[in-house]
Design a protein that fits this description.
Chains A, B: Pfam families: NUDIX, WHD_NrtR. Chains A, B: This is NUDIX domain-containing protein. Two copies of one chain form a homodimer. Chain A is an alpha+beta fold and 231 residues long. Helices cover 32% and strands 28% of the residues of chain A. In chain A, β1 (12-25) and β2 (28-35) form a beta hairpin. β1 (12-25) of chain A pairs antiparallel with β1 (12-25) of chain B.
């Protein structure tokens, strides 16, 4: 058999990429959701997604789809996993590769995203999504919790300067439960990745909350090294 | 646009599954490798792989391909990642989903595997593999090291009863470097997942090495919980 006929006999599949984009804003972990404007599925909510084209890598497809759909560019996306059940998409057999990323919402053009029908929704606002997109979101959150357990987290999501309550808030959003203030403070400071600044955030109280920033070198070293963060 | 024409306009792709199957035997971490018997690529070495068919899930495709190619069945495979570069396969554009598994070689029919042209090779014996299969192997080893760092490892690879030198040997194979005996012993015992048996392995010395087995309940709890194993 020639190489060409070997390949010619194999079935071909539609392959999609779906992007799970997390941001953090106003104390809420948010997900970028599309409300589809045109048929098919007009009005339905979904992740940002599209088909892999002939001559593009799947990683590039994810970057292109995100840019075309939301205007967001220049971010790094990690693969989550492939979703390959034969009946997962109601319209046809589509194999989907899910990607995820954590971004600072403020650094990306929100108006542009909205022009495309893209919206940032906090986790408890997420509606029923098409196909298995809710499952993808659950899996991505699971991955995020795993990351928070073994590696430092926050650099991609928080502003450069943040208070401890803000950082705790982020972890509370990821775990979807309240965390003990003193315990969190003790454990996060013990990581030795925070640099205390001579500034305060006075937006939430008169006394104000000290601002911190990540010591990038220590943060990266701890990312490399790993730990178990018990909360 | 109808749902049908929406899908009709999208490009279709060949989708393969490739299986990275690790086993542990004679003190060596081994990989299941195929030497292809028929054209195309007769004589070439590759991972166990094949195309995803029309109506099967990608997870099932991996299980089927492994069974048909090697006779190995009833094992659980994890997804590693998707390999989707447009030029990764010399013959055609193929998107590959890599899966990996850890198995006990003794529990699977070695003759059957060999009839199919499948061989267990230790890591330093692995030849040049087709396409990006060597990269897949590197990534799978990386994943294995990550698992060994944050979770207990060995249950799927070792016989039910094993000595500490055997267990250390497995870690040495995964990390591809020698580990300090006393340090390893101290750290692995501190995990409190091993049950010391009243038997000795006398195959390697007159004095013999105590045999252990995993306390499955503690092993599973620690798998759930995680830790950092520094070696």
């Amino acid at each position: 058999m020639s190489l060409a006929s070997f390949y010619a006999n194999a079935p071909r599949h539609l392959v999609a990429v779906d992007c799970i984009i997390f941001g953090f804003e106003d104390g809420k972990l948010k997900l970028l959701i599309i409300q589809r404007k045109v048929d098919p599925l007009a009005g339905a909510f979904s992740l940002v997604g599209g088909f892999v084209q002939e001559n593009e890598s799947t990683d590039h497809a994810a970057i292109r789809v995100l840019r075309q759909t939301t205007g967001i560019r220049d971010i790094f996306m990690d693969q989550l996993r492939a979703y390959g059940d034969a009946g997962r998409d109601a319209g046809a057999r589509v194999i989907s590769l899910a990607y995820y990323a954590l971004i600072r919402i403020s650094e990306h053009d929100k108006l542009l995203a909205q022009q495309h029908g893209a919206h940032w929704l906090s986790l408890h606002q997420i509606p029923e999504l098409i196909f298995d997109h809710n499952e993808m979101l659950r899996d991505a959150l699971e991955r995020l919790r795993d990351r928070a357990k073994f590696h430092p987290l926050g650099f991609e999501l928080l502003p450069e300067k943040f208070s401890l309550p803000q950082l705790r808030n982020l972890y509370e959003e990821i775990y979807q439960r309240p965390l003990d203030k003193r315990n969190f403070r003790k454990k996060i400071l013990a990581m030795d990745i925070l640099e205390k600044l001579d500034e305060k955030d006075k937006s939430t109280s008169k006394k104000g909350a000290h601002l911190y920033r990540f010591d990038r070198k220590k943060y990266d070293a701890l990312t490399q090294h790993g730990f178990v963060f018990e909360i």
